[in-house]
Amino acid sequence: MLLSFSGLDGAGKSTQIDLLKQSLSHNGKQVVILWARGGYTPGFEWLKRTLRKMLREKLPQPGASEYRQDKLSRPFIARIWLYVAIFDLIYLWGVYLRFQLLLRRVVICDRYLNDTKLDFSLNFPHVEFQKMFVWRVLCFVALKPNAAFLLWIPVEESMRRSILKDEPFPDTEKTLNWRLSAYMDKRQFSEHDYLTLDCQRSADSIRSEIAQYIQRKMDRGSP
Questions:
Q1: What is the C-alpha separation between 117 and 89, in angstroms, rounded?
Q2: Of residues 207 and 41, which shows the higher confidence score?
Q3: What range does the domain containing 165 cover?
Q4: What is the pTM for the complete model shown?
């Protein structure tokens, strides 16, 4: 079974994923959690750390900065970055994820394909990445989740929770508004594909709704 969680920072994705993993594990399921955003997988982070040691000041440090934005806005660098990030995801979602499913494990993706599309659109507005062959390959190999969840909260609440969690690189209010607008766009996150959850409620009520939704999907024999 493949499950995915999308949504705004601070909405409670990690909390609900942990609760779901506990429930599934209690019922005898083996659970694998994959956290992935394009360019921010464990493999890609290892590559960036290695390159920073080799190139030192030539490679931007983590987090938003004018230097980083200047580097990524250069067409050649942007396309190289995108190629590496997408190939990395092709392996993660197209090979590793499938292998875990073959072992009859439940795979929970903390962010998935549409979240990465938002990230790329935000960070590389000058690159038509959706026309790239490797992106089309990624869309082809990325399996459709058996159940997908979209968690949201108001931007002000997201910012408040980021402060409480002491997030090292929080999004700006402008970026959060852009993300929330995109997440609420039914053309990108349709009601047919996603269960949208207002996460201003208690974590337990959200957990219960997620469990019931998964059960309904299983009863209907969702592929």
A1: 12
A2: 207
A3: 2-219
A4: 0.85
